[in-house]
Amino acid sequence: MGFLEKQTDPTSPMHWRGDMQADYFYPSGVAGDKFFKHLMENDTFLVSKCTKCNKTYCPPRLYCEDCYVEIPNENWKEVPPMGRVKLYTVAKLNAHGKKLATPKIMALIDIEGTNSAMLGIIASGDIKKDFSGVKVKAIFRQKDMREGTIKDILYFEEI
Amino acid sequence: MVEKKEYKEWPPYAPGTYVRESDIRDKKITYTWWEPEVQYSWSLGQAMSKFLLGLKEGKIYGIHCKPCKRVLVPPRMFCEYCYGPTEEWIELPDTGIIETFSISYLDPDARRIEDPILVGVVDLDGTPPHHGFMHYFGEMTKDEIKIGMKVKAVWKPENEREGSITDIKYFKPLKGGGD
Lengths: 159, 179
What we know:
The complex is a heterodimer.
Chain A: E1 15-20, E2 24-27, H1 29-41, E3 45-49, E4 56-57, E5 76-79, E6 82-93, E7 99-111, E8 117-122, E9 135-140, E10 153-158
Antiparallel strand pairs in A: 3-4, 3-5, 6-7, 6-9, 7-8, 9-10
Chain B: H1 21-25, E1 31-34, E2 38-43, H2 45-56, E3 60-65, E4 70-72, E5 88-92, E6 95-106, E7 112-124, E8 133-137, E9 150-155, E10 168-173
Antiparallel strand pairs in B: 3-4, 3-5, 6-7, 6-9, 7-8, 9-10
């Protein structure tokens, strides 16, 4: 009995199954809020430019991360949603390790007129192609469908 | 190599921006909300499985450590005093005494409540002193509950039991030496 009674069937001990509620809430912040609210109404990106070092941020920042200078409202401007592919990778598996039906091209895109890069998906079926340095443009959701999150940018398209 | 910078002017103190519940509800601010699917399956092991399946049948199982002459409840496959295997299953009565208790004005989700929940450790009869498990206490008020009080388990109806510690609803005061 007890400990000496050998167990060979791994399914026989009881398993306690459950769901853990772990909701994730991430407010965009003061600068992020302006950026997404602007994106809901317009097809351009809102960026902010440091008064001291001229570094331009997209998404915009309230403070320059290099000089710690506060960026005033007059230094905010719009840029066209275009850029060049800096880096890219082809994903064949999803976040859970399952095989994707069609591979996804994820890229870090240098936004034109800024010193920042944004992550995005490139819509293209050609996964053999070298996308480095390719000029792309953002395609947005229909204006009435936008919800003020990064998902309002559907994908980037080669120009 | 990164040059070390000397910062002479620091930005002024920024008080921060508060987010109120109404801002989220009325969609005054933009945000990302995600509900990840987090499922778990916790293997209970041999001893705990037998204990919980026993509760389903209305029985409380303990296990005996012969060298230490003590009964472990909830049962374990080895004795943490002598590290020896525990060997003999025994059925314990569903009566005992309150070892310790708490009057909780917070519910399991940490919300404030008016009527307190009584929780504590039950020391079952037939087990060594100061040895028990946690459970709810019921059919008594916060003024009546006291350490050393005799209690008896109130079980769920047999068809509602599922092999969980909550198959015992709570422990009620035992009056007149048992039934």
